[in-house]
Amino acid sequence: MTSPASYTLPDGIVGLKGPVDRPAPGTLPLRGDLAHIALAGRYLAAHYVIPQMRRVGSETVTLKIAMRDDADDGATIDAGTEIELLDCAGDWAWIACGPEGPSGYVRLGALAPAA
After folding, report:
1. What pLDDT was estimated at residue 41?
2. Is the residue at 48 inside a domain?
3. Domain with 68 in it: what CATH number?
4. pTM across the whole model
5. How many domains are contained in the chain?
6. What is the DSSP string of 27-81?
7. For the segment 7-41, what is each residue's pLDDT rounded down to a tens digit?
8. Tell me, what's the pLDDT at 3?
């Protein structure tokens, strides 16, 4: 996985030139309100975030497509895997395995404590 320090941050005004296909949920770390900073030149979002590096805790997790226990399942991430924390809401974390995904939601308790 690429560390946030190695991302190329956009220079100047960020803009899109023409239509852009919306990726499937659970793939790229992109929502209507927020996107991974590495996607700034490719996708439009209200805000971009520089992720915090974290790890999955001691158990394998299955990403959820939405912040609900009954939401569709996404990718499975092995215990101890380094991930990028993009956002927290309540006891849910929106995470990604890098700027190309996969991305999804897990309970905050599924992540290892911050170092």
Report:
1. 83
2. yes
3. 2.30.30
4. 0.83
5. 1
6. SSSB-SSEEEGGGTTT---SEEEPPEEEEB-SS-EEEESSSSTTSPEEEEE-TT-
7. 666 676 666 565 567 888 899 999 989 999 999 98
8. 52
Beginning with the edge strand found earlier in the chain, give each strand of the sheet holding 92-96 in spatial order.
Answer: 52-55, 82-89, 92-96, 103-107, 61-64, 73-77
pLDDT at 42: 86
Residue 7 lies in a domain: no
Phi, psi of 108 (to 5 degrees): -55, -35
Closest CA to 84 of 64, 60, 114: 114
Q: 65 in a domain, yes or no?
A: yes
Q: Name beta bridge partners: 106.
A: 93
- Per-residue pLDDT, averaged over 53-67, amounts to 97
Sign of the torsion formed by the C-alpha atoms of 14, 18, 98 and 78:
positive
